[in-house]
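User
New here, explain this?
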Amino acid sequence: MPRVRVGVALLVPSPVDREVDALRRACGDGALGRIPAHVTLVPPVNVRDDRLHDGLDVLRAAAAGTRPFTVDMGPPATFLPDSPTLYLAVAGAGLETLYALRERVFRDPFDRPLTWPFVPHVTLADEMAPERAAAALDALADYRATVTFDRVHLLEERTGRVWEPLADAAFAAPAVVGRGGLPLELSVTNEPDLDARAFSNREWPVHDVAELGPGIEWRRDPFAITARRDGEVVGLADGLTGGGVAYLRGLIVGAAHRGEGIGSHLLAAFESLAAERDCPRLALRSIAGSRAEAFYRQRGWVEEGRFSPWLYGRDQVALRRDL
């Protein structure tokens, strides 16, 4: 039976995650860019594919019994001489809640033998030379941050040892509506979990056939086009293709690299991908009057709709381009 390598963690929320990543970069953390800043609750464990649903039940049950809590991070500390790891200590009023949550998620199918006792922390660098660790402890001695966790994540190790969220569960009891009739439990997550994805993959084709007729090929293929320079991500374009349409959900270039032609290269790559996937119509939405709208219009995109006001009091314009 195939297995998936997963872990359970609290992801450091924005904007503190960016601060922590800056510290990780300064400390030479080799996992930066592959693993988000986090507090580990369950270290990496291999779980059979057919047990992932059981794991999600554990995650949801643990989250339902937890409420958002606040902890303090810092100052830096180290596990030397046992381990050359530099980390931010985790303490504060929410520490008891954190330990209780860890107990609720560290169970079958996520439980596993441990080499070291559980110490909540945020890793800044692994495999750090003792002399560098000592210097970092001095240089960062004043760093403190306070964060509030409102959900727990299940992470999956993917190609290149990159860890990405597979599911999340908010710290709140699911809302139950329809009591006395047909009760319905409603939960809000950042991304659909495995059961929800399976439901979507099963039900959308049925809907499309009923709505559009037999012979419809139900495909919504995601894509992400990443631009790197010297190993550093400097731009990203992502979206979906299907039904003859390529939808550009977002295109962003790093602020320090704008004006270097990266956006044009990403857009050209998107258009090439659309052609390869037999999608002659390209679509996107942009804030009306923005530099982004001007960028697309200069490259042959035309307006086909407008939403007013749409977001933050600004109009949004729907643009298209036909290949």
The chain is about 25% helix and 40% strand. The longest strand covers residues 38-48. The two ends are 45 Å apart (CA to CA). The helical segments are 16-26, 52-64, 95-105, 130-139, 194-212, 262-276, 291-297.
